[in-house]
Design a protein that fits this description.
The complex is a heterodimer.
Chain A (H helix, E strand, L loop, with lengths): L13 H18 L1 H27 L2 H26 L15 H29 L6 H27 L22 H31 L2 H15 L8 H31 L4 H28 L10 H10 L4 E13 L2 E10 L5 H15 L1 E10 L3
Parallel strand pairs in A: 2-3
Antiparallel strand pairs in A: 1-2
Helix pairs in contact in A: 1-2, 2-3, 2-5, 3-4, 3-8, 4-8, 4-9, 5-8, 6-7, 6-8, 8-9, 10-11
Chain B lengths: L2 H29 L2 H28 L14 H29 L7 H22 L29 H4 L45 H5 L4 H43 L9 E2 L6 H16 L5 E2 L4 H32 L9 H10 L5 E11 L2 E10 L2 H18 L3 E8 L19 H4 L3 H19 L6 H4 L4 H6 L1 H4 L2 H4 L9
Parallel strand pairs in B: 1-2, 4-5
Antiparallel strand pairs in B: 3-4
Helix pairs in contact in B: 1-2, 1-4, 2-3, 2-7, 3-7, 3-9, 4-7, 7-9
The chains are: A mainly alpha, B mainly alpha.
Chain lengths: ~400, ~500
């Protein structure tokens, strides 16, 4: 029997599947820039963690061993991000009617949770050390943590514009973070930079948001112009699609950098001023910083996962409702639900109560147009005809 | 509903655990035992888990829609379950790391009696917690009772854990509001979200009998209670697993300390003995000295107790991690699948599609999406192609009943009308939702299609007011070829057939 559809899998021998699958995964990873970056950085991080682990075992330093475990923990975060970026590109099938695009939001959320857990863990270790300062051999820890810092700086350099530049339409958005790579990477710089990075992404939202404010006021012309702006942003492939993953990964790298920086600072303080309390205080400060920096990512992913109305549409939607109600024949709008499927993809459902003599098709097309202008491309409009 | 006892239980457990955490911190300061301090932090993470579950519960009680959350907060419980599962996994990782550290550098317990005492107290607290949350452990979701069309109601009957909650003096968590959207259609509701989507269930003073099947025969308002309970189940399962993990930890602590007291022969400070299990640099030197001494005087030096005792702790920890991961994984998977907008597992899309096509008046179906909001609250959206508006009015009612039979109570059906009956164009979608899959596919044709759609949308924006747009959507084959609006849905529609690389 000839296979009648692409779904006839039983004709493939099982063994071939595994090889084909892994090579398929590799091809998928290497095809997209985001996942390529993630993959190579993951390899770099993993190799460095192994080096640190072996060095720690060889020199019998518990601090190095635990630091290498921390790097392994980071590698799992990178792995989760990589997996999510590959998975979210899979095609939709029967069980996943929307496809797997939500995986990126979930990955960002889980990364955020892991980061909070890491911060909590570091804080508790700091408290323990403050109460019972252990004998730390900082002479061994210093060169390794400097090397770790360099690895993390590479990561920040790679992912900073790679993440946010995407949502701004930059194609080769890598070579911009000069200030960071000058080597004076004390944590304040990276901290403000990461907040600037946040400003970037929110500015990305604000960009399209301001555009809709305009479209609301004017009528034909404005709407056209802003929509063209909007469509430029939205319809290039992979646009803003991995924002959540990259944000999560970026925060993880920043957290690790902060850790290395904290170790270096405390080592210097201890060597110069013999201030043993510096180590735990640094750890506690760092954990607080990590916790604070994760909050925006968490808020955004929680909003998406809770099916909240998309924040960029918060102001645009009431105007759209007004416009729809002004259409001829429409009595009422009922049960509007708008939610984010993944970054920049909005889904909406709506029920319209219309007069019996109204032109249902016309109303539908108009409603679709109104909402497409604000960026809701998937809209389901149910027409309920009022009984006379 | 079962919220009240849940909340009470959570608060109870929370206060107990927090009190115990304080006790452990104090004891660890008194005995200056680092192990007890780290254990107290485990307790603190337990407190946080309970807090997360409590917060999720409180949020999920606000099932009314707000401006920002049109579905209400009902998903909060799924999120709470996910957060708990992820925290548990992270905790397991930490425990494994600590166990590996112990493997490389085993150390003795300093004051085993105190450890036994505190460990036993912790075990008692955790056992109490286990009893409190046991009713929710089974996770009886997704039972079908064969009522209506083939098994898909997904009720949970939670081992009686919820029905007795309902019997409580009729005080039900949800406010008693009239259920104005009993059938989600033909209801005059103002836009300001007063009564969303069947969320405010009417509790018409049902007497919630012990037999769960009676509940099922009534209409949709019931499902809110039931799916609230099954969503709450997910949350409570997370809490239960956390408490289980802590109980196992306490068991391990107690067992380890007991074995240590009875089997281990320690090195007393005034004796000349060596500890062969701990190889640190300092004892290495001593070791050299002692062996020299020992060669001269065999039997004078004592060896500290059997080394395997020191390795019991990490081994037991690893076993506990295995058990925890095994039990947490289903919870993690289930909550993650709900959040990924999966089709609920009790629904078969193919069969649903076929049945829908069999309905009278339905010519074609596009863009069918079914997903689970939380618990058994399932939402479906679709485009249905029919002949004309009058035919649509008949079909609409039948569609609603069909979906109700399947257990899906919130549906939004977008009708599409044909100008003349042409079966050849049935598979085309008139007002295609610009699928999100298309721009993300690797092939370039989808991108061009997306750009064409962008251009056509820009055009449509100009022609908003003119009725000429009606002509654009005609089904004329010659026109259709020239229109990107109608033709381009084809390429993205077809790749949808290809399955993912699962």
């Amino acid at each position: 029997m000839l296979p009648l559809s692409a779904k006839d899998d039983e004709y493939k021998p099982a063994k071939l599947n595994l090889l084909a699958k892994t090579s398929g995964w590799f091809r998928a990873i290497l095809s997209d820039q985001t996942s390529r970056n993630l993959f190579f950085f993951l390899l770099l991080n993993l190799s460095f963690a192994f080096v640190e682990l072996s060095y720690g075992i060889w020199s019998n330093s518990l601090g190095l061993i635990s630091d290498s475990f921390h790097m392994f923990f980071d590698c799992t975060a990178l792995l989760a991000g990589l997996a999510a970026s590959v998975i979210s590109r899979w095609r939709c099938n029967d069980s996943f009617s929307y496809g797997y695009v939500r995986a990126e939001v979930l990955a960002g959320f889980v990364n955020g949770l892991f980061l909070i857990f890491t911060a909590f863990f570091i804080f508790s270790e700091g408290v323990e050390r403050a109460l019972e300062p252990p004998d730390v051999h900082h002479d061994r820890l210093l060169p390794v943590s400097v090397a770790g810092l360099l690895v993390n700086l590479v990561g920040i350099f790679v992912f900073q514009h790679g993440g946010h530049g995407h949502s701004h339409g930059d194609d080769g958005g890598h070579g911009h973070s000069h200030s960071l790579f000058n080597g004076n990477a004390n944590h304040k710089d990276s901290h403000t930079d990461s907040h600037g990075g946040h400003g970037h992404s929110h500015g990305g939202h604000g960009h399209s948001h301001g555009g809709h404010g305009h479209g609301g006021h004017g009528h034909g012309g404005h709407g056209h112009q802003d929509q063209a702006l909007y469509s430029q942003d939205k319809f290039l492939p992979g646009k803003g699609s991995s924002k959540q993953i990259l944000q999560g990964v970026f925060l993880h790298i920043v957290a690790d950098t902060l850790g290395s920086v904290g170790v270096i600072i405390s080592a210097l303080l201890m060597q110069k001023y013999d201030l043993m309390i510096a180590d735990p205080i640094c750890s506690m400060l760092i954990s607080l910083l990590i916790g604070v920096s994760v909050v925006p990512l968490l808020r955004e992913s929680i909003g998406i996962l809770m099916q909240r109305t998309p924040p960029p549409l918060d102001h645009a939607l009431p105007e759209c409702y007004q416009r729809v109600q002004q259409l001829q024949g429409v009595y009422n709008i009922q049960e509007p639900h708008f939610w984010t499927l993944c970054t920049d993809v909005y889904v909406g459902t709506l029920k319209l109560l219309v007069a019996p003599d109204a032109d249902a098709r016309w109303i539908q097309t108009q409603t679709h147009n109104i909402f497409t202008q604000v960026g809701v491309r998937q809209l389901y409009v149910q027409i309920d005809i009022a009984a006379m | 509903m079962a919220c009240e006892p849940n909340r009470v239980r959570l608060l109870c457990m929370l206060s107990l655990t927090f009190g115990f955490f304080i006790v452990e911190v104090v004891v660890s300061r008194i005995t200056s035992s680092l192990a007890m301090l780290s254990d107290s932090f485990h307790m603190l993470s337990d407190v946080i888990a309970l807090l997360v579950a409590l917060v999720a519960l409180r949020f999920a009680e606000k099932t009314q829609a707000t401006n920002k959350n049109t579905f209400g907060w009902i998903r909060a419980e799924v999120m709470g379950a996910l957060v708990n599962a992820v925290f548990l996994t992270a905790l397991c990782f930490t425990i494994i790391l600590e166990a590996i550290e112990r493997f490389t550098e085993p150390n003795e317990i300093d004051s085993p009696y105190i450890v036994i005492g505190v460990g036993a107290a912790g075990l008692l607290v955790n056992l109490l917690g286990l009893c409190l949350f046991h009713g929710h452990a089974g996770g009886g979701h997704g039972h079908s009772h064969g009522g209506g069309g083939g098994g898909g109601h997904g009720h949970s009957h939670g081992g009686g854990g919820h029905s007795h909650g309902k019997k409580k003096t009729g005080k039900i968590c949800k406010s008693e509001k009239p259920n104005s959207s009993s059938s989600e259609t033909n209801t005059l509701v103002v836009v300001d979200h007063n009564s969303p989507n069947g969320v405010n269930a009417e509790n018409r003073g049902y007497d919630f009998s012990k037999d769960g099947t009676e509940l099922q025969t009534n209409g949709s308002p019931l499902y809110d209670d039931i799916d609230h309970s099954s969503a709450a189940q997910l949350n409570m399962r997370g809490v239960f697993l956390h408490v289980l993990g802590d109980a196992l930890g306490s068991v391990i602590v107690v067992v380890n300390a007991l074995i240590f007291t009875f089997v281990w022969q320690p090195c007393l400070p005034d004796e000349a003995c060596l500890n062969p299990c701990i190889n640190s640099h300092s004892t290495d030197h001593k070791h050299v000295n002692q062996t020299l001494v020992g060669l001269m005087d065999p039997g004078a030096t004592r060896m500290a107790g059997p080394c395997w005792v020191l390795y019991m702790d990490p081994t037991l920890c690893v076993m506990m991690v295995g058990i925890l991961l095994y039990t947490t994984y289903p919870l993690l998977k289930e909550s993650a699948l709900i959040l990924l907008q999966t089709v609920p597992k009790q629904i078969d899309m193919h069969r649903l599609n076929e049945k829908l096509l069999c309905l009278e008046g339905v010519l074609a179906i596009h863009e069918l999406h079914i997903w689970q909001l939380a618990g058994s609250r399932i939402i479906a959206t679709a485009h249905i192609k029919c002949h004309d508006p009058t035919a649509y009015m008949d079909v609409a009612k039948r569609l609603k009943d069909f979906f109700h039979d399947e257990g899906i109570h919130a549906t939004t059906i977008q009708p599409e009308f044909v100008t003349f009956s042409s079966d050849s164009r049935d598979s085309l979608c008139e007002l295609s939702c610009r699928t999100q899959c298309a721009p993300k596919l690797c092939c370039g044709s989808a991108d061009k299609a997306a750009e064409k759609k962008a251009a056509s949308e820009a055009d449509d924006g100009l022609r908003e007011v003119s009725p000429a747009t009606l002509e654009v959507i005609s089904e004329d084959p010659e026109q259709a070829a020239a229109l990107p609006l109608v033709v381009t849905p084809e390429p993205p529609a077809v790749p949808r057939e290809v399955e993912s690389s699962l």
